[in-house]
């Protein structure tokens, strides 16, 4: 059986995977907290139309890149798939960003990664691995274009961002029932169409989680041991090892084992359902703090945007390289046994 993997994650990267010096200020989950007084402005984030313009320009610049529309959102926005498919025989990895519309730095990181894939920094990478990216999967939620009121949200700017789709459905609970057009597009036109070996699902969590007494910059989570083929689970944990080793030792990232409201088994959640239904190894990376929310403890001040976006880029780059050169298959997974589960601490 093939080894398969999915992750969730949110930058400037140098050639060969060596990263530029990263400032330690506000790093490793140290803030700034929101609490009603930090700046949160959605105008600094890509709008849907700005993202589409960016993707079309990159497609013209990058000979290896192809842009495909896989379906539409509830409000009729095209859902785009960015494709780098040099050789169908190569292993394939899928990255999904912004299933939840208020988790915006995942999309910001994916756009940085796409731009990087068209430069010499990624020379030779696309010869060994196929890469699929869905940026801003929940575009209606990301644009606040929904059929319900968004009251008491934290951010200022030209729009609010919200977790659910336009109909108020959590897309990351819909992978079993597949009731929404966004979910149907993903399953019918991506998961069933392409032979995907790995999937990385990029998310955000609240800002209140800690490990070793310090706020985390993110948390990782593999597929479920009781509902996943052993080889698929092995691949999931190996992908987690790649992400952990690329982030934690740098001194600015601080990762824990994920624990949250979504940790109970539900086949509608991508980290569980896609591993179970498609034999795709799945790993979740929940990055700290959302871009907008009615609950202050979910939101993080935008001064943290830089290192959190870079965390996503590093995770995507590191996993793509490990799959391309096969080193993912050599990753030791015993660290999972000792990785502390994050704890909730009000701030």
Automatic annotation (TrEMBL):
Which Gene Ontology cellular component terms are annotated? extracellular space
* GO molecular function annotation: metallocarboxypeptidase activity; zinc ion binding
One of the GO biological process terms: proteolysis
**UniProt name for this protein:** Zinc carboxypeptidase
Please give the organism: Halobacillus karajensis
- List UniProt keywords, sorted A-Z: Carboxypeptidase, Hydrolase, Metal-binding, Metalloprotease, Protease, Signal, Zinc
Its gene is: scpD_2
Q: Where does the signal sequence lie?
A: 1-20
Family, according to the entry, reads as follows: Belongs to the peptidase M14 family.
Name the needed cofactors: Zn(2+)
